[in-house]
Amino acid sequence: MKIVADSKIPYLKGLLEPVAQEVAYVPGGEIDNATVRDAQVLLTRTRTRCDRALLEGSKVEFIGTATIGMDHIDLDYCRHHGIAVENAPGCNAPAVAQWVHASILQWAQARNIKQPLTLGIVGVGHVGSIVARWARQLGYRVLLNDPPLAEENAHHSPLTSPLSPLPSHLSPLTLLQRECDIITFHTPLTREGKYPTWHLCDKSFLDGMQRCKLIINAARGAVCDNEALLQWHGDLALDCWEGEPSINRNLLNKAMVATPHIAGYSLQGKQRGTAMIVEALNRRYGWHITPQQASTPLKGASVVTAQSILESYNPLADTARLKASPETFEQQRNSYTLREETR
């Protein structure tokens, strides 16, 4: 068996060699059709677009992405060609929650803004649920919005729903627009279906704000219309950008917190991501590889304080680096020093 793996997936080298005839470690941006043509397994990050152009004519039968998101994978193509796909759900959720709350706290200090504040969370999955739990501990009023989850919950009683624990209340976006001081997005990027999220935060959404002072996007760049953000009057904390790595320099200058898509780049998050795809390989092929496990829980610290978050991470340092050298966006991302999660 031949395995092609993104060379930037950490904690992977040495694990697969005992079970594969060949393991090729290749930079994500250089993985092409010729690279994967004779490979049965492809292990990726978000920088490799897994579609017909990459996969046609190859022997690939399994794709593992060491990420939460899968919008870089053409799932329909894979489904129709018998290619199994596994991701790493929730692997970096505590790190993203850390980034979100550190950004809010730095913003509040800079603007001399005091509690009580109302935080709106759009998307209550792995990340959004941790952001919400920590926000309540920090004294925020929290409003949650997640139409797919609300629809799913409508078909299950609290005793039988697989979505446990259930959010106590899900609100429409109009309520978040009306009552929130801060809105943060934690949705996948989808263009079709009943609840598309592409440009969910657009000019119309922003024009409907009544008191919001800070928009946060640590989901996917195109969840927010970046041109609309540029014209908005409020503050921004952005980790994800349309057009990465060639980002809008004016939007970069406007954002108070601006980082090169590294919100989830914690040491423990990377350990979890790699462990999850290795365990998926174990299940599929009957291997018994033992990956390195994370030292912090998947659901994040049970209790946080403003001090514990601020001591664990300062996004303004990453912001200063990106603003000083935006042309090195991809280099900064690829060479990022993994941080410890909030404990």
Please give a structural write-up.
This protein has about 350 residues and is an alpha/beta fold. It is built from 14 helices and eleven strands. The protein has a six-stranded parallel beta sheet with strand order 7-6-8-9-10-11, with helices on both faces. Strands 2-1-3-4-5 form a five-stranded parallel beta sheet. Helix 8 links the parallel strand 8 (about 180-185) and strand 9. Helix 4 (about 95-110) packs across helix 12. The radius of gyration is 20 Å and the shape is globular. The protein starts with a strand and ends in a 9-residue tail after the last helix. The relative contact order is 0.14. Residues about 160-165 have low confidence and may be disordered.
Order of helices and strands: EEHEHEHEHEHEHHEHEHEHEHHHH
Amount of beta strand = 5-15%
- Profile the largest sheet: 6 strands, parallel
Helix content: 25-40%
Arithmetic mean pLDDT: 94
The tally of strands reads 11
| Uncertain stretches of 5 or more adjacent residues | 158-166
Number of helical segments? Answer: 14
Strand order of the largest sheet: 7-6-8-9-10-11
- Separation of termini? 40 Å
Structural class: alpha/beta
Q: Using the alpha-carbon principal axes, give the shape.
A: globular
Radius of gyration: 20 Å
